[in-house]
Structure formats: structure tokens, C-alpha cells
Amino acid sequence: MNHTRLAHRPKGRALRATALLAITACTLTACGNGHDDASASASSPAASAPAAGASSPAASPGAEGPSDSALRMIANGGHRLAFHVTPGHLPAIVLDAGGGEDSSQWKEIAPRLHSATGSQIITYDRAGMGASDEVPGPWKVENAVSDLEAGLRELGVTRNVVLVAHSQAGEVATYFTRDNPRLVSGAVLIDASLPQLYTDEQIARLVAATAPQVEAARKDTSKKANRQLIATAESYVPLHEAYHEVTWPSSVPATVVVSEKTPFDGSPQDARRWREAAAEFAAAAPNRALVTAWGSSHAIPHDRPGLVLEEIERMLGRLS
């Protein structure tokens, strides 16, 4: 679809723009339990975080882990990241939130998952979210992967990890698993951003649709959500052109859970491409499964937490 046609369909353009933000920055949609700048500021490292490597009970709105988890601040590349750890046995289950979300996205699921499995549960805030330091400049998936690697290394997690990744975290999970196939035992990808989606045509559609929102964000950089959107937009095209060529290791099993409504509810063509990308990913290897979260929006962890738990437990059963 060319830019001229987009200009004649403002409603569709807004829907696709909202969808892009749902995947990357979640500033215009409710992807579960979003938090405003006030809560983010209250939980910023400058306000409340202990020194790097220290532990304390998990607290602070916008960055809370399970009630019995401990907060570890871990340094990497000159910034600090908040990891919430609930002790347990292997495999360690790492829950990675969607774009614009922090570890509190999992506050309902994480304790239930620990109770059901006894596994070590790890949630964390990517840079700029929750209690983790904000990093200026374009968002780079390589930096996000490095942060996760540093956190797991510092926590002594060196094998048998099950990744659970929602939305934008699917990109982090894909690169992380490609680089660490012996560390990752399996993954559950929840309405995740997958390489198959990002054809040149689809990238162009998303960029054109989001341009007005990005320009508006540039006019008010005092808001954390706007800064996150700008950081994502600055690297969006080259990042996703490269991502389209990335492959998931065939040795690592994965379950793809796709929502019925997708992030593009209201844009049938884009919703179809999202579902097709999930199906193409799942069909690429015999150790992958495709599950549809019927009745769910893109915010599957919020809309269908029971299904998320079920699929994680199913993955654990496959690995035992």
C-alpha cells in the first residue's frame, strides 16, 4: 500500500500505528498493565534501587516481581538493570515483557507459575523500563540481548532456560536463542514479533502508519513513553530488515501463541500477515507448535493468563 492510499484511510492508519506501538513501545495501547511516568519515576534506580549486585525484597510500583522474589540490580554496559528472582529448580523460566511494559506485566502469572512448577522464575525490566536505567539513543536489539545475557550470567544461570517472550520481546528471544542455543532449552512466544512478518512491504506500511505519532512524540520528549517510541523509530527500518533474515535454531523447540485479534485488530490485511508470520514460523521445524488464543487481544498475558500458564507447563513437559 503506498503512502497516498494511506493518507486517504486515516482510521486504518491510526490502527496500524497503534499496532506498531503495541509491538514496540505500547504508548497508545493497553498491552496489559501499562504504567505512566509518575509510577516509572517512583521506581527509578535513582530513587529506590540498591547498588549493583545487591538484593532486596521486590517492591516499587511498575517494577514488581512475585511477592517472594528478590530484586537484583545488575550492571551492564554502564547502566543497571532490575532482575526479580524467585528461587527454584531448573529449568529457569525467564519471563520477558512486551514493548513498553516492565516486569510487572507478569505479576499475576509469575507466582502461579512458581507454585505450579517449582522452577526458578526470573522477570526483569529491559533498559528504560521499570526500575532499570534508561539508555539514550536508538533501541538496539543487540543491546537488549547483551543485557539479558549479563543478567543471567550474574545470577549463575548457565543452562536449561525456558524463555517466555511477549510481543517485542520475541525479537530479543530470537536473537538471544540464536546466540545461545545451548543455554535455551525451549521457548513460549506469546503474540511475539517474529522475523517472517518483516517484508519490505510490511516495514514500509508500519513506518508510514506510525510517522504522525513519532513526529508528535518528538515535540514532547519529557514523557518516558515518547522517548521510548522515538528510540524505537530511529532504528526501526534497518533493525527489522536485518531481523527478517534471522532464523531460530532448529534444535530449540518453541510454541507460538497467537492472539485471535492480533495487534492489528481493525486492519484485516495486517492482521492476516501477523497470523501468517506466526504460522510460517511454527511450520519451519517439527519441534514447533502453533496455538491460537481465541477471544484474546494482543495482551494475551492479561486476557488469557491461564492459557499462558498451560503452554509453559506443556513446554516443560516436553523437555522433561
From TrEMBL:
The lineage of its organism: Bacteria, Bacillati, Actinomycetota, Actinomycetes, Kitasatosporales. Keywords: Hydrolase, Signal. It comes from the Bacteria. SUPFAM superfamilies: alpha/beta-Hydrolases. One of its GO terms (molecular function) is hydrolase activity. PROSITE patterns: PROKAR_LIPOPROTEIN (PS51257). Residues 39-70 have a biased composition (Low complexity). Gene3D superfamilies: alpha/beta hydrolase. This is Alpha/beta fold hydrolase. Residues 35-70 are annotated as: Disordered. Residues 93-310 form the AB hydrolase-1 domain. Residues 1-30 form the signal peptide. InterPro entries: AB_hydrolase_1 (IPR000073), AB_hydrolase_fold (IPR029058), Carboxylesterase_BioH (IPR050228).
